[in-house]
């Protein structure tokens, strides 16, 4: 990939990551001590959370990944008061086409409550994962931007504790995407709905450099 194109795509990718991370940290700061999400947060914290300074260091690397067991906390949907969401990312902008995997992890109470006096307290935390990926250049099935279920938060495919043992290879959903940052936008829409994009890019355009290029923002706005 030409250096200027790689730089533009990398800047857009990390600009969206920075906003998602900032929103996640704001959600965490405002979380009340009695929140139902505390149990899920404790389970997610068996890893650790990426900070803004971590992202700042990563964004100049054309190839890299979040350290093992470290996740970027993202804001869960407003109505999901018991759940916690986080991302782990692997990126490579050095090839002819970017090779990106973004893993969305959701820690949430099992939906079917167990019997007992305190039903909420007795609901065990489970892990649900989904990966958002660029086209598979080497394979034959997934030569398109796509999302699939996952039981892990990295390419090593190590099942996380409490992971629901659903199939991790299917179904595969084709995404409305053309660049790596589009994976993150699709992920955010899957959590918050399409109207959230207005909020997302309002924050992205306010970032100090490096920020998402204006042409990128305008292209995404045309999705709707």
Task: Describe the structure concisely.
The protein is α+β, with helices and mostly antiparallel strands and 224 residues long.
If you had to describe this structure to a student in words, what would you say it looks like?
- There is one protein chain.
- By secondary structure, this protein is of the alpha+beta class.
- It has six helices and eight strands; from the N terminus they run ααβαβββββββααα.
- The chain has helices at residues 3-30, 38-44, 52-58, 180-192, 196-204, 214-221; strands spanning 48-49, 63-65, 70-74, 84-92, 99-109, 125-133, 146-150, 173-174.
- Strands 1, 2, 3, 4, 5, 6, 7 and 8 form an eight-stranded mixed sheet that branches.
- A hairpin with a 6-residue loop joins strand 4 and strand 5 (99-109).
- Helix 1 (3-30) packs parallel to helix 4 (180-192) and helix 1 crosses helix 5.
- The longest helix has 28 residues, at 3-30.
- The model has no long low-confidence stretch (mean pLDDT 79).
Low-confidence stretches: none
Rg over CA atoms: 17 Å
**Biggest sheet character:** 8 strands, mixed
SS class: alpha+beta
The portion of residues forming beta strands comes to 15-25%
Strand element count? 8
Oligomer: single chain
Number of alpha- plus pi-helical segments:
6
Shape: globular
Series of secondary-structure elements, N-terminal to C-terminal: HHEHEEEEEEEHHH
Work out the helicity level.
25-40%
Summed over residues and divided by their number, the pLDDT gives a mean of: 79
Distance between the termini: 29 Å
């Amino acid at each position: 990939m030409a250096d200027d194109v790689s730089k533009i795509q990398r800047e857009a990718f990390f600009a969206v990551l920075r906003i998602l991370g900032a929103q996640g940290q704001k959600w965490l700061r405002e979380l009340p001590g009695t929140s139902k999400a505390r149990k899920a947060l404790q389970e997610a914290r068996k890893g650790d959370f990426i900070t803004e300074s971590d992202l700042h260091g990563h964004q100049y690397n054309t190839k890299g990944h979040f350290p093992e067991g470290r996740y970027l906390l993202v804001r869960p949907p407003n109505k999901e008061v018991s759940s916690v969401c986080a991302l782990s990312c692997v990126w490579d902008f050095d090839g002819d086409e970017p090779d990106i995997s973004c893993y969305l992890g959701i820690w949430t109470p099992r939906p079917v409550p167990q019997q007992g006096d305190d039903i909420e307290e007795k609901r065990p935390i489970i892990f649900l994962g989904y990966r958002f990926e660029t086209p598979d250049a080497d394979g034959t099935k997934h030569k398109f931007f796509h999302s699939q279920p996952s039981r892990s938060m990295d390419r090593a495919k190590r099942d996380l504790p409490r992971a629901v043992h659903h199939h991790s290879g299917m179904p595969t959903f084709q995404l409305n995407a053309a660049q790596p940052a589009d994976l993150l936008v699709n992920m955010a829409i899957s959590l918050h709905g399409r109207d959230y994009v207005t909020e997302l890019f309002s924050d992205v355009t306010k970032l100090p450099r490096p920020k998402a290029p204006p042409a990128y923002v305008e292209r995404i706005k045309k999705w709707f």
